[in-house]
# Entry
Amino acid sequence: MDTVRISTPQSLLRLLPRLVGAPEPPALVALPFRRGRSGMPMVLDLPARRSVPAIARAIRNGAQGADAVVLVACLAEALGTAPLPLRTPLASLAERLARDGIRCLELLALGPDAWGDYAMPDGARGPLAELDLLDDPAPGVPELPPLPGTPSGSDGPAALAVAQWLDALGAIEVEAAAQGAIAALERAVDLAPRLDAGPGPLGIDPAKAAAVAVALVARPVLRDIAIELALDGPDAAAATLAAIDRDGALAADDAAGRFLGCGPAPDADRLHERLRRWTAIAEATPLDARAPLLVIVGFLLFFVGRGRTAGRCAELAMAIDPGLSMAPLLRDIVDAKGAPDWVLGQRSGE
# Structure
């Protein structure tokens, strides 16, 4: 069994081709779960009133020990704006499975024109376009120099040195660094290519600088400042930090819009280089402290049009720290947009 994390109906429907290929409609896809882990998917006939007991029995027999299931009705007809079809037999199937101890987590419809949720059978339909994340890189975007993928961690000298410094850092030292957070974050990024080289001629240890940055970005505000530093540079980050200090979190609305991929294109060279360097820091960070780094790297991947890889970073961050709210937000942004405005503009030739 594989672990499948479902954050939105879109992310679930996007899994279908990987799980069962392209199911030929009309068909019912049943994805069983046991204690949160997915079992073997099944492709069955769509239920009619008389066939509900037989289909429930087939799911129960094919998913021994399952305690939950996701059902997707793959329909041949367009959904349009009418109420979703087959609502009654599908609801009856879900109720019968629930009586057998198999809870229905999601009951969705997938048509040739759109997708829908039987929990809101008269609700708005979702366009199929939002189920297709842009390729990495997005189609039509000029090829760029090789960019890193999802940080995978390392047990090399850099990782050992960063871990040792994280253990050695005291609260007073971290708080002092936070008073000059932008300088501390910039120092770590500048020294990232030399993480395993040890202290330089001036006695500055790149691994210590990275450890300080890891400790700082555990704070949500400074994690977001690290992202803005990479996206728009020190002046923009300093203005945001000053506004937050002066007026509170609402003063960061402009920065939040940038995180959604709105506004002018950033400096591509700076963004690509920051992505490489934050990836190096993330790979040298111990797993239990890596989630905020994965969020940083994930947003930078999203900014350069690598939506799929950004989504994987978000999912890894959620697995490490389920309470990290910025990770599911990144996943939702990727699901909703696929790429920022400046990448989408390149695709359309704007």
In short: Confidence is low (pLDDT under 50) at residues 137-142. The radius of gyration is 24 Å.
